[in-house]
Design a protein that fits this description.
Elements (H helix, E strand, L loop, with lengths): L1 H13 L8 E4 L9 E2 L15 E7 L2 E6 L5 E6 L5 E4 L10 E8 L5 E6 L9 E6 L7 E6 L13 E4 L4 E6 L12 E5 L4 E7 L12 E6 L2 E5 L4 E8 L2 E9 L5 E9 L2 E8 L5 E5 L7 E6 L14 E9 L2 E8 L4 E7 L10 H17 L1
Parallel strand pairs: 14-18
Antiparallel strand pairs: 1-25, 2-25, 3-4, 4-5, 5-6, 7-8, 8-9, 9-10, 11-12, 12-13, 13-14, 15-16, 16-17, 17-18, 19-20, 20-21, 21-22, 23-24, 24-25
Helix pairs in contact: 1-2
């Protein structure tokens, strides 16, 4: 028996446990029964092919869709069907290049929506609005013209609750060229302040966090702009550290969202070309393990020339989670993602026994 255990230990070293493929299925009740709410489906006017929808979020048992079609709108969608259940009060919202652009939801049910400013200034500040609940009027949770004056900010958003506060991150754009725009802004909702995180030695390139951004924990952020790769970083206050660059399975994947499923850190990445979604195990964020991909769209799609959109993880139950994915101009997809459990080391004992028997067989032949 001792020899079997030794062989099993050797098997762990020689044949390391590899993450098994994820099962990624369409949430068939969503949209037209295929897991896809296509632009204009059923005459729906708040999901278009004119780049007026760039952000979605999940919380409170609903999906939130920000739409600028016909005005400033934050629509409430049924999580199972995508049916429109009404909209949030947007009275008094104004300012920025787009007054509303990217949403996020905290664990206490508060809904946040950030604007987009393409040149931050007193006349075009970066703003984050807050709704305490779906029936509430919006309040201005943050308004800043100085976090990085002159910069572009608000193309993406990520949220994490720390226990003492809610943090929202957004990546700076590469144009206009502003010193410090290789990083991102982190807004603290408890203090209504925003900090520009900048990098010293070996900084990222300008705008490297602009189009895809996600927290992996309260001091680490992944981000991307060009697609196919992402930057891994840590931050403390206004100081950022570039930890490295990771490669994705497809060079058109740039929208990012991370979550934990059954104790495993999982990253979803979406292509801004054909709307496929890929799932990765990011136990080591610098070596993401591809677990599979899926796509619920069909037919000819209107190109997303701005490379914008957003992913939102929904409910997580055991080793299964719901994922909502919007690629601008190509609608919203809903998936059910199942991550197989990692085999326990004890299951490798049969492999050790097989190695032992194989060794004996070879010895007997000599």
């Amino acid at each position: 028996m001792k020899r079997v255990i030794v062989y099993a230990a050797i098997a762990l070293l020689v044949f390391p446990v590899v993450s098994q493929a994820a099962v990624i299925a369409a949430l068939s009740s969503f949209g037209g029964g295929d897991g896809w709410l296509a632009p204009g489906e059923g005459g729906y006017t708040f999901l278009t092919t004119t780049a007026t929808e760039r952000g979605i979020a999940y919380g409170n048992g609903h999906v939130y869709l920000v739409s600028r079609a016909g005005g400033n709108n934050v629509r409430i969608l049924d999580q199972l069907t995508g049916a429109d259940l009404g909209g949030l009060n947007t009275t008094g919202i104004s300012g920025g290049t787009f007054a509303v652009n990217m949403p996020a939801v905290s664990s206490d049910g508060s809904i946040y929506v950030a604007n987009l400013t393409t040149a931050m200034s007193a006349t075009s500040p970066y703003k984050i609005y807050k709704w305490a609940n779906e029936a509430a009027a919006p309040t201005t949770a943050l308004s800043t013209a100085t976090v990085l004056a002159g910069s572009r900010l608000g193309d993406d958003i990520a949220l994490i609750d720390t226990g003492s506060s809610t943090l929202l991150a957004s990546g700076f754009g590469s144009s206009p060229v502003i010193a410090g725009n290789s990083g991102y802004a982190v807004a603290d909702m408890a203090t209504a302040t925003a900090t520009a995180v900048s990098f010293g030695a070996t900084p990222p390139n300008g705008g490297d966090f602009r189009l895809g951004i996600t927290f992996t924990d309260s001091s680490h952020i992944l981000g991307t702009a060009t697609g196919g790769v992402y930057r891994d970083s840590s931050f403390s206050g206004n100081a950022g550290t570039l930890l490295g660059t990771a490669t994705l399975n497809n060079n058109t994947e740039r929208l990012l969202a991370a979550t934990m499923i059954a104790g495993t850190p999982i990253l979803a990445a979406m292509s801004t070309t054909d709307s496929h979604v890929s799932i990765y195990d990011i136990t080591n964020p610098l070596t993401p393990v591809f677990l599979g991909s899926a796509n619920n769209t069909s037919g000819t799609l209107v190109a997303n020339t701005n490379g914008v959109g957003e992913l939102a993880w929904g409910p997580v139950t055991g080793n299964t989670a719901t994922l909502y994915a919007m690629n601008s101009n190509q609608g919203i997809e809903a998936f059910v993602v199942t991550i197989p459990p990692v085999p326990e080391p004890a299951t490798l004992l049969p492999l050790g026994l097989a190695m032992l028997l194989l060794g004996r067989a070879r010895k007997n032949r000599t």
